[in-house]
């Protein structure tokens, strides 16, 4: 029996990607179990293999399972506290949580439009996203970031990983033809994406799907 935690999700950089990156940044090896859509539809979901019939799921070595992407993300981010991905300070943690919840709102408003049937109503809803919803949120996110280097302070946290993953999902996975140019006027948000992309552990994961084992106690938080 493996002693590693196992993350179940599809082969997508979507809801599970911040969790994967949290493992990688902290240098914690894990099993990235990729579930095919066919296996999910024909076996796993009909047979209720997972607690809520949804993914991602974190499976422990003893077979116990945890659900809900943000709950799993917060748990993984606290496995090695010295890496600072989910701060222990209550106020700093609040800043991380409010940013994550804000992007959960952005994602949900986008998802609702994405699943609409093609037609005039969907096209109008897409224009509403581009011209009203996104500017409303992005303006306020920039204010929330303020003078911080990252989204919730002076070091990398899971809120940065969530922001990066939501935009990847918007630009590359869904079918609304949303372009990165929507961030042209939002330099602080673009900087978050650049900082995440420049992290060496993130680069290794994205290039090779590998995690480099690191000390349990960080020698210094990656900035």
Automatic annotation (TrEMBL):
<protein>
    <submittedName>
        <fullName>Glutathione Stransferase</fullName>
    </submittedName>
</protein>
<feature type="domain" description="GST N-terminal">
    <location>
        <begin position="3"/>
        <end position="84"/>
    </location>
</feature>
<feature type="domain" description="GST C-terminal">
    <location>
        <begin position="89"/>
        <end position="214"/>
    </location>
</feature>
<dbReference type="Pfam" id="PF14497">
    <property type="entry name" value="GST_C_3"/>
</dbReference>
<dbReference type="InterPro" id="IPR004046">
    <property type="entry name" value="GST_C"/>
</dbReference>
<dbReference type="InterPro" id="IPR004045">
    <property type="entry name" value="Glutathione_S-Trfase_N"/>
</dbReference>
<dbReference type="InterPro" id="IPR040079">
    <property type="entry name" value="Glutathione_S-Trfase"/>
</dbReference>
<dbReference type="Pfam" id="PF02798">
    <property type="entry name" value="GST_N"/>
</dbReference>
<dbReference type="GO" id="GO:0004364">
    <property type="term" value="F:glutathione transferase activity"/>
</dbReference>
<dbReference type="InterPro" id="IPR036282">
    <property type="entry name" value="Glutathione-S-Trfase_C_sf"/>
</dbReference>
<dbReference type="InterPro" id="IPR010987">
    <property type="entry name" value="Glutathione-S-Trfase_C-like"/>
</dbReference>
<dbReference type="InterPro" id="IPR036249">
    <property type="entry name" value="Thioredoxin-like_sf"/>
</dbReference>
<keyword id="KW-0808">Transferase</keyword>
<dbReference type="InterPro" id="IPR050213">
    <property type="entry name" value="GST_superfamily"/>
</dbReference>
<dbReference type="GO" id="GO:0006749">
    <property type="term" value="P:glutathione metabolic process"/>
</dbReference>
């Amino acid at each position: 029996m493996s002693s590693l935690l196992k993350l179940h999700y599809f082969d997508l950089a979507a809801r599970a990607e911040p969790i994967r990156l949290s493992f990688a940044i902290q240098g914690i090896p894990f099993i990235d179990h990729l579930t095919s859509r066919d296996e999910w539809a024909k076996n796993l979901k009909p047979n209720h293999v997972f607690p809520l019939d949804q993914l991602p799921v974190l499976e422990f070595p003893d077979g116990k399972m945890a659900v809900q992407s943000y709950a799993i993300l917060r748990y993984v981010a606290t496995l090695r506290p010295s890496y600072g991905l989910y701060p222990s300070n209550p106020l700093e943690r609040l800043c991380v949580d409010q940013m994550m919840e804000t992007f959960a709102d952005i994602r949900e408003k986008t998802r609702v439009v994405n699943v609409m049937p093609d037609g005039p109503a969907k096209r109008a809803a897409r224009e509403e996203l581009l011209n009203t919803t996104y500017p409303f949120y992005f303006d306020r996110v920039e204010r929330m970031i303020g003078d911080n280097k990252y989204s919730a302070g002076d070091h990398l946290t899971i809120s940065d990983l969530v922001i990066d993953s939501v935009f990847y999902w918007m630009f590359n996975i869904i079918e609304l033809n949303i372009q990165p140019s929507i961030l042209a006027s939002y330099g602080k948000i673009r900087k978050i994406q650049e900082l995440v992309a420049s992290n060496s552990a993130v680069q290794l994961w994205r290039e090779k799907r590998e995690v480099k084992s690191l000390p349990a106690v960080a020698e210094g938080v990656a900035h």
